[in-house]
């Protein structure tokens, strides 16, 4: 398989080639692994936050960097590369070329600074990209933590331009685009963040009008009559609830699941009010959750192709070293990696066609799990903190077999046999001499 890695600390991308079963933590099992050199290296504090493949052209990617800029890059094959060892000659290699830099910053740090001044936070909240996804071919939606929603045009002539920008309430942890069904004359997406309840917006097909169409309501106070903290971290849509009568067809009909920073799973149906149908504590210790990935058939934006809110499973991560699998009732189904993961997971993604769960984090390992069995399929050490992983292809790697010198092998075996016979003779001589001394 071939994986593209985004490296947070070295501000670059790397290409990893390996087979199922590769494990650099076990001596002798890393013969079929190739980790490419750093490419598209940015300056200080210029890591790649998000990326997307260009529609109908898998060789091109749009990269969103942590300084607020965009890059359009192309991946090209390299036929001859002198730095590659002979035993990796059968592994096709690639290099990256920058086609265009969009250097206008899409961030607004002043919005987050004003929020910081009114809060009790002790650390700075830097602006960052929270979403980069396609609205349609040639049109990107890029959203930032500061509440800016940009519409970006990527032309067939490899030119990037900003069409317009909308502002929503900040800070944001996610902007999730709805693509379960085709909506007439509009796009719908959800937003949310710290002390920022989930909201639904519709954007017309001209990209000029943005309207809020729904807002969630917080659950009732806890048993101590304290407000339950609001901090949705990730949201995924499900298919709409089936409607039985024609009278209800015009109602707002969206279903989605949310995980929060306070270890809650919330399941919502907009037809049944603003509060969640279920709000479940996943962990008694309130471990902060950071991600949500559905297990099953999903859309291009990882929304679940099912309308059953009672029967689904999902994978989530915490800020320690846990990658967990739950069902819709909040029952723990298992933990990926068990105690093998020793750093906070910063990225997970499920490749449903292959049945893989890709995981990377602060312990600098890239892991590939089987989604259903939770078994580790590959584990490769990289010298970088991985924050993005993309499966480029799932073809097995053909590595060159080592040349075996039969004559040397035969001589070595003969020498080992001779040495073994000599050792046995010496041992018997020693035992016989000791036996004689005892008799005397």
UniProtKB/TrEMBL annotation:
Keywords: Ribosome biogenesis. It comes from the Eukaryota. Gene3D superfamilies: YVTN repeat-like/Quinoprotein amine dehydrogenase. CDD domains: Nsa1. The keyword Ribonucleoprotein does not apply. Belongs to the NSA1 family. Component of the pre-66S ribosomal particle. PANTHER family: NOP SEVEN ASSOCIATED PROTEIN 1, WD REPEAT-CONTAINING PROTEIN 74. This is Ribosome biogenesis protein NSA1. It comes from Huiozyma naganishii (strain ATCC MYA-139 / BCRC 22969 / CBS 8797 / KCTC 17520 / NBRC 10181 / NCYC 3082 / Yp74L-3) (Yeast).
């Amino acid at each position: 398989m071939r994986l593209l890695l985004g490296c947070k600390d070295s501000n670059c991308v790397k290409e990893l080639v390996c087979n199922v079963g590769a494990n650099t933590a076990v001596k002798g099992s890393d013969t079929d692994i190739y980790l490419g050199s750093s490419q598209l290296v940015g300056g200080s504090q210029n890591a790649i936050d998000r990326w997307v493949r260009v529609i109908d052209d898998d060789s091109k990617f749009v990269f969103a960097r942590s300084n607020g800029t965009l890059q359009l890059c192309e991946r090209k094959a390299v036929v001859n590369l002198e730095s590659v060892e002979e035993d990796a000659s059968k592994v096709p290699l690639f290099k990256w070329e920058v086609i265009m830099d969009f250097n206008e910053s899409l961030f607004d740090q002043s919005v987050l600074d004003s929020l910081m001044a009114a809060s009790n936070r002790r650390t700075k909240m830097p602006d960052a990209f929270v979403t980069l996804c396609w609205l349609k071919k040639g049109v990107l939606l890029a959203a930032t933590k500061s509440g800016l929603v940009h519409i970006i045009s990527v032309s067939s002539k490899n030119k990037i331009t900003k069409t317009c920008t909308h502002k929503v309430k900040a800070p944001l942890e996610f902007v999730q685009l709805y693509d379960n069904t085709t909506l007439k004359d509009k796009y719908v997406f959800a937003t949310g963040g710290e002390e920022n309840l989930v909201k639904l917006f519709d954007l017309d097909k001209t990209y000029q009008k943005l309207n809020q169409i729904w807002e969630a309501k917080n659950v009732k106070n806890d048993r101590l009559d304290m407000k339950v903290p609001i901090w949705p971290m990730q949201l995924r849509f499900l298919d709409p609830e089936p409607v039985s009568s024609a009278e209800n067809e015009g109602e707002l009909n969206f279903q989605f699941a949310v995980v929060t920073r306070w270890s809650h799973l919330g399941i919502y149906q907009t037809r049944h009010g603003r509060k969640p149908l279920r709000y479940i504590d996943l962990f008694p210790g309130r471990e902060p959750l950071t991600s949500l990935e559905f297990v099953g058939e999903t859309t291009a934006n990882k929304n679940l192709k099912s309308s059953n809110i009672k029967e689904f499973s999902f994978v989530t991560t915490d800020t320690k070293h846990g990658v967990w699998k739950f069902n819709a009732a909040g029952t723990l189904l298992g933990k990926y990696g068990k105690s093998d993961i020793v750093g906070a997971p910063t990225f997970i993604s499920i490749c449903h066609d292959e049945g893989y769960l890709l995981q990377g984090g602060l312990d600098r390992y890239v892991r590939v799990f089987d989604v259903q069995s939770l078994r580790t399929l590959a584990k490769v050490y990289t010298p970088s903190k991985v924050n993005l992983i993309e499966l480029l292809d799932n073809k097995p790697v053909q590595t060159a077999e080592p040349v075996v010198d039969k004559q040397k092998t035969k001589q070595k075996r003969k020498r080992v046999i001779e040495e073994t016979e000599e050792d046995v003779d010496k041992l018997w001589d020693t035992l016989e001499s000791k036996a004689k001394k005892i008799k005397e």
